Amino acid sequence: MRTSLAFLVFIGGCGSTSATAPGTDGGAGSGTDAGTQANDPTSVLSSPTFDRGGGIARISYVTATNFSSGGGMGNASLLAQLYDVSNVSSAYFKTPERVGSCDVLIIPPQTQIGGSLPTYVSAGALRLEGGVKELAIDLDPGKPYYASGSFDSALWSGGETLKFTAAGAAIPAFSTTVAAPTTIRVTKPESHFPAAVQVSRSKELVTEWTGTSAGSVLVSISGPNQDANKPNSYITCAFSGADSHATIPANVMQRIDRAGSGSIRVSTVSAADVSAGDWGTIRVRAESEALEPGSSGRYAANGATIAD
């Protein structure tokens, strides 16, 4: 179960937990597109995790992830992460440091972390519409957490309006829409499967891509994470989906704890925050995974080698 706790602090490579103000009460809401309406690509880094006083802390995400290899081929998933983490170790539930357009989070060795497990909370059946096919998920029978819904082809092509709805349960019903992000192809740093992408923790990291998208482009680096006795490093940086290149400065890359095997992930993300009554704010996200140039493969599918 320790790996599931670590997942709380780095949600799908799309930002780390941080404390923000809760949403207003009042049931279902329409939400706002955090990646485009605010005209600030880093707004997707801000998590709807918040402390409402008295030690109440929550993580609230609903995420649809799309992988499109062209011609309708690919796969997609719908995942709900709705947790009460009030009793989870503060080493996991912590606010990342914002450095420019990046969130930096260093997690202590797992062997040094104790505390309780998160409490999973239901919002009833969750549904995603507006793409190629409707997806729906609910709590696994007899289990306290949501199943992950999957679809064996691409769910959207980009530009559609995706509608997320929740029927409501312990968490009140909510509904919102986001613009489906478009898939981009990353040309730098180079990725040639099955080789790992090469990056350095002492130099700036320049990322270049072809194509544009609604919302933001996220570049996420994590690891090395093979040793439970050493810290794990998580860096997530957000840039405009209208651009074609971005740079993570050397002073951010230097925050990676050590050299070794890790991961690098590039994706396009549109997000909206929606109020769910007394529960507060829920972040709803649509994410498209980037591809390698000239192929139908995921970018950096075999991870990254992090050098000094």
Topology readout:
Elements lengths: L1 H7 L23 E2 L16 E2 L5 E14 L2 E12 L12 E3 L2 E6 L11 E2 L5 E4 L5 E3 L11 E3 L9 E6 L7 E6 L5 E4 L8 E4 L4 E6 L5 E7 L9 E9 L4 E4 L1 H4 L6 E16 L5 E9 L14 E4 L1
Parallel strand pairs: 3-20, 14-21
Antiparallel strand pairs: 1-19, 2-3, 3-4, 4-7, 4-10, 5-6, 6-17, 8-9, 8-11, 11-12, 13-15, 15-18, 16-17, 16-19, 19-20, 19-21
Can you describe what's shown?
- With about 300 residues, this protein is mainly beta.
- It has one domain.
- The chain contains 2 helices and 21 strands.
- The strands form 3 sheets. Strands 1, 2, 3, 4, 5, 6, 7, 10, 14, 16, 17, 19, 20 and 21 form a 14-stranded mixed sheet that branches.
- A hairpin with a 2-residue loop joins strand 5 (about 95-100) and strand 6.
- Residues about 1-40 have low confidence and may be disordered.
In short:
This protein is mainly beta and 308 residues long. It contains two helices and 21 strands.
What is the β-strand count?
A: 21
Category by helix and strand content: mainly beta
Report the order of strands and helices: HEEEEEEEEEEEEEEEEEEHEEE
Task: Label the overall shape.
Answer: globular
Domains (count): 1
Q: What radius of gyration results from the CA coordinates?
A: 18 Å
The description of the largest β-sheet is: 14 strands, mixed
Helical content (DSSP H or I, runs of 4+): under 10%
Beta-strand percentage range: 35-45%
Give start-end ranges of low-pLDDT stretches: 1-38
Number of H- or I-type helical stretches: 2
Please report the distance between the alpha carbons of the first and last residues: 31 Å
The average pLDDT score comes to: 79
